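USER:
Class, as today's exercise, take the chain set out below, and explain how the chain folds.
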Amino acid sequence: MAIIKCKMCGGELKILPDSTICECEYCGSKQTIPNTDDEKRLKLYERANKLRFENEFDKAAGVYESIVAEYQDEAEAYWGLVLCKYGIEYVDDPKTGKKIPTCHRSSFDSVMDDSNFDLVMENSDTVARGIYREEAKQIEELRKGIVEVSSKEEPYDIFICYKETADDGQRTIDSVIAQDVFDKLIEKDYKVFFSRITLEDKLGQEYEPYIFAALNSAKVMLAFGTSYDYYNAVWVKNEWSRFLQLIETGQKKTLIPCYKNIDAYDMPKEFAHLQGQDMGKVGAIQDLLRGIDKIFDRDRLTTNKENEAKKESNSNSLYKRGMIFLEESKWEDAGKYFNLALDMDPECAEAYLGLLLTHHRILKLEDYIDELIGKITYVNVETLIACDREEERINSFAKDNCVNGFLDERQIIDQFEYDLKYESSLNGIIEKENIFDTNDEWKRIERFADSDLLGEIKKQKERYEKAVLSAADIEKNKDAEKIATIKNEYSAFIENKEKQIIEQKETASNLREARYKDLCDKFSAANNESDYKRLKEDFSKLFGYKESKKYIDECSRKIKEIEVERRDQELNKIEENRRINEKKKKTTRMIIIGITAILLVVLTISGVTSYIRSSKEQQRQIEEANNLMENGDYLKAIDAYYNIDNYDRSNDIDKCIEGHINNIKDDIKNKNYDEALAQYKDLCEYEEKYTGIKYDIDSYSTVIDICKLIEEIKNIDDGEEHNIANILQEVSEYSSEYDISDLIDNSTFDYVKSLDGEWKCTKSWNTNKNEEYLTGEYLSDKGFSIKDGFIKQSDFDWDITYVNGKYYKVYLTGTDGDVISADEIINYSGDGDNTFDVMQINGISFSYTKK
């Protein structure tokens, strides 16, 4: 697995799941981290970060570019591109021991305006965005310092790029050759940047401002090299690659490779289009100097100097004319002459300043700064949260003070809703500090100003920045007051609301007590089944208060007694009707045959006795079955009902099945899957035993299907083939009514869920079976696929062929290439050249496209 390392010190990071930030245990730096759920992506990050640690910024940027090409929402990759652009390396601060950024590739472009930084902000979450912004501010301050120092440096004509020391610490031949050329150039009055001499009085951390100034001002770079390794040394490549980037932006600069004892193959490929100078040839230095003179037009230098003096004189006159119009508040005329002055001298800082003042219709720089200061607080406000809600306190209070049925927890919690938001301008004011970085006119003034004007600009800029900081401090104090006020009011609100709810609790308790007494009185007066049923339901709404459970049980007993008494009355009524009917019978033959009449009387009496005995036995059996059903022993109750002769048992059996199914439902809801499955199997046995109840069982299809699903999942590892795709779909469907998602918490389904891919559906024609079929696939980039629920690996490859206007998949063996089958592809949109992998299910090969 790829390892994520600290971007400051390179130590290995320990990352918590689902986290976007991490603190390094070695250097203590808090930093953002990339998404860790993709091994390929982590490998790319590992390589990019390694190159950046080695200061190979161009190569690292190339890897970051490949990341964002495939993962467009990766904020960390865009941040890597920002670090590479500015050549950021994190070093130890000798004062604090913390890691701080140092810049090896400064730029006139603000970090805050960089397009990649905009994408960092767009694709990061709130916590990570804050860390990115703080790091960006540090880098921006560093860049400003470098630009400020470099702006005071005199421009250079030529930049000499070379490797100073070899691996053994000795001076390189490149350095010697370069110094020989340097000496000759100095003799010809060229201003030359040669680090060995130019930087000999500078400290190491101060190199970049001078290198930056020299690279931007030099018209020519001489890149010396005597080996492939020397040309591609980190700091050598850093210099010539940055110079080439300046050329690519359209600047008129020339890079001359100066090589010795190497062939074209050892030269950097970036030099392929450049005209170089072989320093091993006789007279190489003279040839090089002559070529440089031509670049600088030294033969026309005198004429150019005269023209420049004349141009400067004309430019100065036009500038003065513009200032006269400016003082007279003739803005359009002033702007016209400042532009004419810039046409004569594009580097006239005073004319740029005049244009800036003209555009704002202001006479002096000081007034312009005053206007900016007056607009510091004109910003968009943002809505923030003063503090977190006291969730734990509120939930605990609600639980302790609820009165079930009269004052619920949810009712209490809802009463604690409170608006904790406030509006703040602080961040908007802080952003105003960077106003000069986005002002092109101001940048040109700073870039071309002489020391006197630059001093005044710096003074006014500092005055503005102090005003911004002062306004920010005021806004911070306002925010602190708002937060304190909201916190105090929120605390008072909670305390007051708790007092109110305690009063509500007392009222609710009194209502419950009154309700309890009322129900007790009604129970004493109850005398029929409907009264007891209603009281049973009302007592259940007291949720066990006092002896409500006892009254519920007593109501159930009374209801049962009434039902038994009602059945007895019905039986007695039947017997009474039978007796009345017997007495009404006519005995017309009593006189003729006395003995027969007597015998008939005896037989009649005997039959009645037998009938009465039979009716009482049936009543006993019915009561026994009813007791079994009331006690929840539903299956035994079914047996008892089926053993009663001459009795319509259908309604009672339906009730038993409903009760048994409800028990299964409860077991499923309570996660008692083994018990639910056992009860389902018992019910299946009764389905076979009493075929008449099959229709009733089918009416509870959802519960029955879930039980079948439980049984299949329990046997998932029995070595047989199971339709995993259907199981996953059924678990998802049934979970909307019964939460059974934990059924698939086992090793088999853990493996299935670890597959990283997407579901697809493929319509194809099987020429072997001559039939059309639809199959569902789960595509994975881990070398496996689920199709029709089965997981296997393939031993086959396939290709696409086009025959008689139709595309076919042709399956080949992996060794001799024999065709084993060909399936027509329906609605194929490929071009026949795509690369696919193949899976095999039950001997049938099929394809999926790799991610």
